[in-house]
Amino acid sequence: MSVTITHLIPCTSYTFTVSGRGSGRQGPNSEIFTAITAAEVPERVANIVVIETNLVWDAPSPLTCEMLQYHIHLNLIKIDQCQPSDRNHSFTVKEPNLELLRLESYSTYHVTISAESAAGIGPRSTVEITTPQKDATASPANVTLKNSTNPQALVFTWQEIPCGERRGVIQSYNYTLRNNSSVVEQDVVNTMSVTITHLIPCTSYTFTVSGRGSGRQGPNSKTITAITAAEVPERVANIGVNETNLVWDAPSPLTCEMLQYHIHLNLIKIDQCQPSDRNQSFTVKEPNLELLRLEPYSTYHVTISAESAAGIGPRTTVEIITPPKDATASPANVTLKNSTNPQALVFTWQEIPCGERRGIIQSYNYTLRNNSSVVEQNVVNTMSVTITHLIPCTSYTFTVSGRGSGRQGPNSEIFTAITAAEVPERVANIVVIETNLVWDAPSPLTCEMLQYHIHLNLIKIDQCQPSDRNHSFTVKEPNLELLRLEPYSTYYVTISAESAAGIGPQITVAITTPQKGATASPANVTLKNSTNPRALMFSWQEIPCRERRGVIQSYNYTLRNNSSVVEQDVDNTMSVTITHLIPCTSYTFTVSGRGSGRQGPNSETITAITAAEVPERVANIVVNETNLVWDAPSPLTCEMLRYHIHLNLIKIDQCQPSDRNHSFTVKEPNLDLVRLESYSTYHVTISAESAAGIGPQTTVEITTPPKDATVSPPNVTIKNSTNPRALVFSWQEIPCGERRGVIQSYNYTLRNNSSVVEQDVVNTMSVTITHLIPCTSYTFTVSGRGSGRQGPNSENITVITAAEGITI
User: Fold this and answer.
1) Cis peptide, bond prior to residue 253, ω within 30 of zero
2) Under-50 pLDDT residues of the chain
3) Which residues contact 547 (CB under 8 A, 6 or more apart)?
4) pLDDT digit string, tens, across residues 417-470
5) In the prediction, which pLDDT does 794 show?
6) CB-side exposure of 674: number of CA atoms within 13 Å?
7) What's the confidence (pLDDT) of residue 761?
8) What is the pTM of this model?
9) How far apart are CA 714 and CA 731, in angstroms?
10) By CB neighbour count within 10 A (0-12 exposed, 13-18 middle, 19+ buried), where does 298 fall?
């Protein structure tokens, strides 16, 4: 009952079942049994090759058992294919490949590899490999600039990249020549030198070179800076005058620095009007010469040559005329010619001297000013000018300057001239403005008006009184203050102006002088009789002629009470009735006239008093504490002479009827009730009296205030008591007319000798006092108390408490 199964695969998992078979069918299988074949030592690895950057090989075949690792031994025998070596290195890897980036590039190795499984290490496989090439890690060595006399060429050489850093076969060299950041030439050579031609003399270049193998380009060498040699410059060209400079083109092509330019100047004619033979030589750095240093508008022979580091180039000679400039002098001998025309001035002058005009004087610019304002500014080609349409008696200033092709030359010295005077025209627009008579001076007003001749003929004063008063005088200014004339009056005014040339024509107008405030108040202000106690009537007469000084358009009146304005208004008539006043009140009245000017003066103050009126009823008759008071009639404006009072007593002490009457008068609206029966009812009738009479009566019923009782409770009696420690007292009510109010309580006092034994208040008319001492003498008093203070005590009653029995 066993079996051996052969030809299986090592390291492989198998499942095994077994079943019995009898004479019948096969019996059931046993449970599945899993078994794994044992490992075996692996075979050799195969196909060891280099693929790109990896060393790879095939695992041993057949591969059924897991390869735990691969044992690798590396023997480096040649570095960079140019340097022998015997460097060894052993290690293991899990997978059948090795990254060659960890090895020397472009180098030869002996590689030995064996595989290891769980059963052990298999046999070795050995091959020789060359690692892949990479980019060089260094640039060509000793890059050098060779000397060259050709100013348009540069020669560079270099040496091979060092062994171990080229990392492959160097197939070519890439070089780059730059000028600043621009590439001038970039190319590839197989040699270790290069000559670059067609360059620019005196120019700075930079050169780099790098080696290239089968990989990418290696690093560039350090930058070498080289400058091409200088060359002798060509002729300068295009010598010409540009505005204020002599300019020329530097030699072409201009690549080398021009150290300087040699210039020779031969001046042959100054200002194109004076021959010369002046010579001058000098050098300049730039291809231009500022002509401000030379004579303007003059002829020169100019010779120029350029100099570089290689030497001086050939000369170029031209003839130039320097540009004109502003004249440095003004026209000579400026003169004013005599003129009788007051509206014209004539000026003449001579030419600017040679050497100072510095160009052709093409025209003359003249300016005539009045103060700082330009009157006329113009250009002439002659050396004289007549300026017309000027203003007589006016000061002008004149200047003239020459102008060539440049800017204007300097002005001549200022020449001041004054035009002649003329007789003035008529004055105009004679009008009255506020408080002044004004007029316009003759137009145009150019000559000074020495004075104005004025004649005044007054024909009507205050528009109410004829006149024929005359007055003549002169004034300096074209206005006359009318405050000196009669106001609101008519004048004939004649005015003429005078200048240095004489007096002009007259002009006459009629004027009315302005109105002013009246100088007097309305006349005869009178108070009219009036029986109305609430009105006053006043009247007055017109302000006198010559004092009203204008049309009186209205009258302003003011009525005052003390300093307060009661009424202030304007009226067009000469009387006024003022109503709604207060009777028996003193007022003051003033009135004034108003024209178109200010308000005239007030009249003298008139004092008036409104009439009295019969008073109204008194009001609010009430009892206030101990007084009967009432309000005087309203409004209270007239003096109350007195108050008439009638008293009818109808109940005394609220317990005894009566019909007692009493009449009298008082000055003030109050009555002291102390004079009346207390706690009693009265009918009170009151009327007020003024100067106009007695007013209507007012009647009310009042109760006078209560007062203290005037007597004590009567018939105070001691009641019999068998209690030796108690006393009983009784009394009767205070009589009507003496209690003077409601008796609200009784105050009693019990004394032993002078000591108070008991003191209390009761509402009844008897009291029992207990807790006393037998056989002891006591005194008792009692008093009544109303709404006022306590009434008087009763007479003392003396009593002795009873004896108490003796108990054995």
Assistant:
1) yes
2) 807-808
3) 518, 519, 520
4) 988 888 888 999 999 888 889 999 998 777 888 999 999 999 999 888 899 999
5) 92
6) 1
7) 93
8) 0.38
9) 6
10) buried
At residue 37's C-alpha, the angle toward residues 35 and 43, to 5°, is 160
Q: How many CB atoms neighbour CB 660 within 10 A?
A: 12
Q: What is the pLDDT of residue 406?
A: 67
Give the Cα separation of 483 and 432 in Å (integer): 12
Burial class of residue 656 (count of CB atoms within 10 Å of its CB; 0-12, 13-18, 19+): exposed
Show the tokens assigned to 22. 């009898």
Q: Burial code of 405-439, b = ≥16 C-beta within 10 A, e = fewer? A: ebeebbbbeebebebbbbbbeebeebebeeeebeb
d(C-alpha 127, C-alpha 116), whole Å = 19
Exposure b/e, 613-649, CB count within 10 A at least 16 = b: bbbeebeebebeeeebebeebeebbbebbebbbbbbb
Residues 6+ apart with CB under 8 A from 332: 349, 350, 351, 352, 353
Q: How far is CA 696 from the centre of its chain?
A: 77
For residue 135, the number of C-alpha atoms closer than 13 Å in the C-beta half-sphere is: 9
Rg over CA atoms, the chain: 75
DSSP code per residue over 725-760:
T-EEEE--PPPTTTS-S---EEEEEEEETTEEEEEE
Whole-number Å distance between alpha carbons of 144 and 224? 8
Find all residues with CB under 8 Å of 583, minimum gap 6, and list them.
533, 534, 610, 611, 612, 613, 637, 638
Size of the chain, expressed as the number of residues it contains: 808
How crowded is residue 222: how many other Cβ atoms within 10 Å of its Cβ? 9
| Residue 614, CA distances (Å) to 16, 43, 332 in order | 157, 161, 113
Q: Ramachandran region of residue 54, left (φ > 0), alpha (ψ -120 to 50) or beta?
A: beta
DSSP state of 804: -
Q: How far apart are CA 319 and CA 296, in angstroms?
A: 14
CB atoms near residue 103 (< 10 Å)? 18
CB 268 within 8 A of CB 277: yes
Check: CB of residue 45 under 8 Å from CB of residue 58.
Answer: yes
Q: Quick one: tokens of 318?
A: 């031209």
Q: What is the pLDDT of residues 635-661, one digit of tens each?
A: 788 889 999 999 999 999 888 899 999
What's the distance, CA 590 to chain centroid? 58
Q: Which two tokens stand for residue 34?
A: 């899993």
Structure tokens at 83: 């340097």
The answer to whether the bond into 705 is cis (omega within 30° of 0) is no
* The token pair that represents 200 in the structure block: 């620019």
One-letter amino acid for residue 412 of the chain: S
